[in-house]
Amino acid sequence: MWRLIIILLLIVSWRAPASADGLEPETGLLPTSAKQAFVMDAQLPPEFWHALDDRSYIAITGFFVGEKTFAAGGQSLMNRPDRVCSIYDSSVCFDVHPFYTSSVPQILLSGFVMLDGSNAVTFGIDSGYSSSKLKISPSLLLGLSKRWFVSEKRDAHFILEASGWLGQSVSHEPCLDRFNRPYYCGNLSAWSDFTYNARPTNLYFKLWYEKVF
User: Fold this and answer.
1) 110-132 pLDDT per residue, tens
2) Is the dihedral of CA 29, 34, 35, 38 positive or negative?
3) Which terminus of the chain is more exposed, N or C, with fewer CB under 10 A?
4) CA torsion 10→110→120→35, rounded to 10°?
5) How far apart are CA 102 and CA 68, in angstroms?
């Protein structure tokens, strides 16, 4: 017999646009949710109810190696520039690839620890990045997920999640022309016209409701 599951989702994100499915931000490179780990007992045969109440385990949900794309706050920050031309004069072009090259790639990893059937801790690690003109400090993803059944039938539940990438900083350094005038290396615009977020901390709050009919 088929069961119908109704899902309602509310996501409140700071500096994080929601994607089409509402699960992660469009520019997110790794999962920040443990929602898929919360199994509703009403979807299982009755003899398996409560079987997961005391089960604990760890799961890796995402892995990213940044070679041509740099990340900050768990999201895509910028693509590595190679040969760029001035936004003021397209005939003025330079190869800036060496300025954004590091011997160690940026590595991101995410996962969760299932404490029991209704509680989980989400985690993530960003190794950061260091090149001549761009430095991204390491950061951590930390979060909590909590599930409440609505009734003893275990056919409906709420899941509340809060998580965020914390402790990251971004620093750009200008390029200089022969007159020692500073420029942003990414498009050779005047340094005074270039702005960026030096503290890209992204926080996520998600509320899920599911019911089986």
Assistant:
1) 999 999 999 999 999 999 999 99
2) positive
3) N
4) 40
5) 11
Amino acid at 130: S
What pLDDT, on a 0 to 100 scale, did the predictor assign at position 67? 81
Query: Which residue type, as a one-letter code, is found at position 112?
Result: F
**CA angle (122, 213, 3) in 5-degree steps:** 80
Q: What is the largest CA-CA distance in the chain?
A: 78
| Terminal-residue alpha carbon distance, the chain | 11
Phi/psi at 33 (5° precision): -120, 150
* Residue pair 157/38 in contact by the 8 Å Cβ criterion: yes
Cα–Cα distance for residue pair 91/73, rounded to 1 Å = 35
Over the stretch 15-55, which tens digit does the pLDDT of each residue have? 333 343 445 666 788 888 999 899 888 888 888 888 888 88
Query: Using one digit for the tens of pLDDT, what is the confidence trace for 121-168?
Result: 999 999 999 999 999 999 999 999 999 999 888 999 999 999 999 999
CA-CA distance, 105 to 27, in Å (whole number)? Answer: 19
Return the SS3 of 36.
helix
d(CA 2, CA 149): 21
